[in-house]
Description:
flat; 2 domains; 0% strand; mainly alpha; 77% helix; single chain
Amino acid sequence: xxxxxxPWASHLYVFASALYxxxxxRAHRALALSALTAVSLGFVLQTCDLVQRxxxxxxxxxxxxxxxxxxxxxxxxxxxxxxQRRYRxxxxxxxxxxxxxMVVLPAALLQGASRPVPEALxxxxxxxxxxxxxxxxxxxxxxxxxxxxxxxxxxxxxxxHFGVVFSRLPSLETLDRxxxxxxxxxxxxxxxxxxxxxxFAKKTWGDYWSWDPKQxxxxxxxxxxxxxxxxxxxxxxxxxxxxxxxxxxFAVLLVSFLGLRLFPAGLHSGDFQ
Length: 273
């Protein structure tokens, strides 16, 4: 099986990050178009790599840290393309693509053969649970990126320092709305992940809930985002408070995803053993 597709995809993502950074400084349409083309090509190459791995091993390739990062980066790249096309804001690529590159580059360095997956985990429907879970993390990552953009713009406006951030980013209201939309869809994905995860836990380990570290951290994140959504709907929370809480919620999810793979613990250990 070829192992060159993922490194090439990672190079394209790094190249796209540089192009988006250049576009952020000098808003030439050709830079934005070239960056989007590079991201799209990287996404296609990575799709081919994932299909290869699935056909070779017969299950969703998330058996080690490298594969997990690759899958997350792939979904993150696809989501960033959709968000940019949906909102017609190439400047968001300057915040999204560095995230993609930071995820996929280590995946390319760590790539190797998949480890065997226990038969108990080769269940129909489990790939859907995995994809929805990773999709939720990707959406929250993009929401956190938009939250960072919001805070940078707000800081410039409060300091009356109207530099390149002010001239390139949309209004605070637009950034807040985009962050809210991403967070809502991420919350839906996280809710589906917890429900389907409980179902598969019952089938595999005999209990719906075991207070596994990953389950616990995911539940904490769910309550954080549920509280933020309630505050937005009924208390009118907008702006800085919402942006900061979005970043806090994503940080908890990141610990759940990355920390427990670097230091395996509980049933959701890094290699599924």
